[in-house]
Amino acid sequence: MPVGDTPWAETLAEQEGRLPVEAWLVALASLPAVGPARLRALLAARRPFAVWAALRGRPSPELMRVAGKQDLYEQWRRTAANLDVARLWARHREHGVGVAALGTPGYLSALSCDTDPPAVVFHRGDPHVVRGPRVAVVGTRRCTRYGSDVAFELGRDLASAGVGVVSGLALGIDAAAHAGALEAGAAPPIAVVGNGLDKPYPERNRALWRAVADKGVLLGEAPLGAPPERWRFPARNRIIAALADVLVVVESHASGGSMHTVAEAAARERPVLAVPGPVRSSASDGCIDLLADGCAPCRDVGDVLLALGMSGAQAAAVDSRSCPDCVGQQVLDALGWQPADAEQIKGRTGLAVAEVARAVEELRVAGWVAVSGRWIERVGITR
To answer: Residue 124 burial (CB < 10 Å; 0-12/13-18/19+)?
Structure first.
């Protein structure tokens, strides 16, 4: 019997009419072992609802190939048969979790220009704080007191300078950086996590999770209930790198998550700074390797501001200008803190040349950018 003739298909069709596209993306992201790559593959040829309907219908060789394993594909079909998409969507709304789909107005412009943007982003807190200069501060969970103190000071001083501190809310360096940013009470903190936003991980950081959500924003690409599976964290690291204008590694062992974030930052041509540490401390092995490879040293917040192209006076100044509109903010996010020309901005944003030119002129008049010949350079801090 064709899918459209089955009794449940009528209910499904009714749901399609009253549920947003984000609801079906949440459902697909809730399938077992569906991460960024599999979700992208599922959406390559079909709308989110169409994928869900196909899982509820006859066996699909196309979707089976995406699953890669027969047993995983059968798990998807069983999940699709039993999951109430409307109830799942309502649960996210009840928990205060916002959901934005790639290509929709609510999606973060800082990620839409990335080479590997999430198909769906979940958030708690205010996603509009993801604007202005941003620095990711990362490092090992097994940090020393030295590393923890440096991370705290960097987080505090960067936030005081109007720079958004991005990290992963893990134990160790991540937690120390966000604690410092919160103490400053200035630029809101930005956290990217690797599991559902209803499950603070690690449990010891529960209070920090709540504080970041209250004062800034928690971001992720996992739906409610998603556990902190190991494969989710490399995916999270690419988002941290995508959001950062500069990456600072405070302490890192020779291998580990921080080095993966470094690789993601390098792929995006983001500057990477490393904090020098004792040569006899294994917690500094990764940083020492980065310095030997030519990364700039980070001794204090001044080195980071220099990498951003900002002076201390610029960072401390209170900006009374009005905020850019949506297109202007998209251009600023694509511009970052390195000079670029209109063609480069066009390629990073997907905007038409005329849209870029109009936005740049408005930003120039408002004092957000300076134009010298064909080069456009950011000179202000968004609030």
So the answer is: buried
| Domain layout of the chain by residue ranges | 3-94, 110-308, 326-378
| CB neighbour list of residue 256: distance below 8 Å, 6 or more residues apart | 140, 286
| Token output for 257 | 């998550």
CATH 2.60.120.760 assigned to domain 326-378? The reply is no
212: which 2 tokens?
A: 């970041």
Distances (CA, A) of 177 to 78, 235, 242, 274, 362: 42, 21, 18, 15, 35
CA distance linking residue 158 with residue 60, whole number of Å: 51
Could you tell me what percent of the chain has a pLDDT over 90?
Answer: 75
Residue indicated by tokens 């940013």: 181
**88 to each of 21, 30, 107, 349, how far by Cα in Å?**
13, 9, 20, 32
- Torsion-angle region of 344 (φ positive above 0: left; ψ -120 to 50: alpha; else: beta): alpha
DSSP state, 261? H
Sign of CA dihedral 25, 26, 29, 30: negative
Find where tokens 């490393």 sit.
Answer: 274
Say if residue 13's pLDDT is above 80. no
Q: Which one is predicted more confidently, 221 or 6?
A: 221
Give the CA radius of gyration of the chain.
22
Which residues on adjacent β-strands are paired with residue 297?
274
Q: Give residue 322's pLDDT band: very low, low, confident or very high (50, 70, 90).
A: low
**Residue 28 has which token pair?**
């697909």
d(Cα 12, Cα 7) in Å, to the nearest integer?
9
Is 325:382 a contact under the CB 8 Å cutoff?
Answer: no
Omega of the bond leading into 7 within 30 degrees of 0 (cis): no
CB 30 within 8 A of CB 82: no
| Separation between Cα atoms, residue 243 and residue 241, nearest integer Å | 6
Strand partners, 370: 377
In degrees, rounded to 5, the angle at the alpha carbon of residue 270 between the alpha carbons of residues 267 and 274 is 105
For 110-308, the fitting CATH number among 1.10.10.350, 3.30.43.10, 3.40.50.450, 3.40.1180.10 is: 3.40.50.450
